[in-house]
């Protein structure tokens, strides 16, 4: 995937930027990552951009941190990017917002915890800013899709934490994560934005696995360390995201979008027609 440093590199109507999240985004090309699978789905049609950063909460991922005119005024310093103009925004066709895992961490001095009211407010502000771009643009609308955080395998995650620090204590749990997942579903409903409820889906899948298996799973089969999706979990999320796009935004489903260039067979046919019209010997045309 080409590293695109800022929106000025983007071409009109050719991108599905995937914006804002946390570690699940940053690792989303590993373990058969769902973003890598989405990029494959749109290969040759749209560019899929991963804009997730490990450890970011909704506060750090706030759009306003990326839109200071003077980098010295932003906590991101030199990494700040210019404010999107109407023309630059026209290249964006879909924004996927995947937040909540770090925000739902239990409160502590070093925690990434964000209080629920602030989390809801910031998520609503993100959606409103994108909606404002839509209202001020004649380009195709920027579609939005929300994803809830997955469930946590508390036992496995504690083992992972203690592998780095023997004194570590559990810093998140399913009870709290479910509250943040519900908040995302609620905000999505308020703004009429579709939500991929990954938390509920994986919870139901885990129940089915437990009911149909004679063996008791020692750890969650969808997570590789108790928190981050493994290949199976990524396959599930990729399928859910693609299904959500197809059902809610059929105009940008991969089947509805033509390739950016003709097929190799058509290109070869066109080249032959050009060579014939110009009376260029095939050998010379390849020099």
From TrEMBL:
SUPFAM superfamilies: SGNH hydrolase. Residues 31-235 form the SGNH hydrolase-type esterase domain. It comes from the Eukaryota. Pfam families: Lipase_GDSL_2. This is GDSL esterase/lipase.
């Amino acid at each position: 995937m080409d590293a695109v440093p800022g929106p000025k590199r983007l071409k009109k109507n050719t991108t599905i930027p995937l914006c804002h999240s946390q570690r699940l985004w940053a690792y989303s090309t590993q373990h058969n990552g769902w973003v890598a699978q989405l990029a494959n789905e749109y290969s040759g049609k749209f560019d899929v951009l991963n804009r997730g950063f490990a450890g970011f909460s909704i506060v750090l991922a706030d759009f306003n941190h990326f839109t200071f005119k003077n980098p010295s005024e932003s906590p991101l310093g030199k990494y700040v990017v210019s404010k999107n103009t109407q023309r630059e925004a026209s290249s964006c066709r879909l924004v996927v917002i995947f937040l909540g895992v770090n925000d739902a961490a239990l409160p502590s001095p070093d925690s990434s915890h964000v209080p629920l009211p602030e989390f809801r407010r910031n998520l609503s502000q993100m959606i409103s800013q994108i909606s404002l771009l839509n209202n001020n643009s004649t380009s195709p609308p920027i579609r939005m899709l929300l994803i809830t955080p997955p469930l946590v395998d508390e036992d496995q995650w504690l083992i992972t934490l203690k592998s780095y620090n023997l004194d570590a204590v559990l810093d998140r749990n399913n009870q709290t994560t479910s509250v943040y997942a519900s908040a995302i579903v609620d905000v999505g409903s308020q703004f009429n934005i579709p939500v991929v409820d990954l938390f509920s889906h994986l919870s139901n899948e885990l129940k089915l696995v437990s009911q149909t298996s004679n063996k008791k799973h020692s750890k969650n089969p969808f997570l590789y360390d108790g928190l981050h999706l493994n290949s199976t979990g990524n396959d599930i999320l990729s399928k859910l995201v693609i299904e959500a796009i197809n059902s809610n935004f059929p105009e940008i489903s991969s089947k509805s979008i033509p390739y950016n260039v003709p097929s190799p067979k058509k290109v070869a046919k066109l080249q032959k027609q050009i060579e014939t019209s110009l009376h260029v010997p095939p050998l010379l045309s390849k020099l």
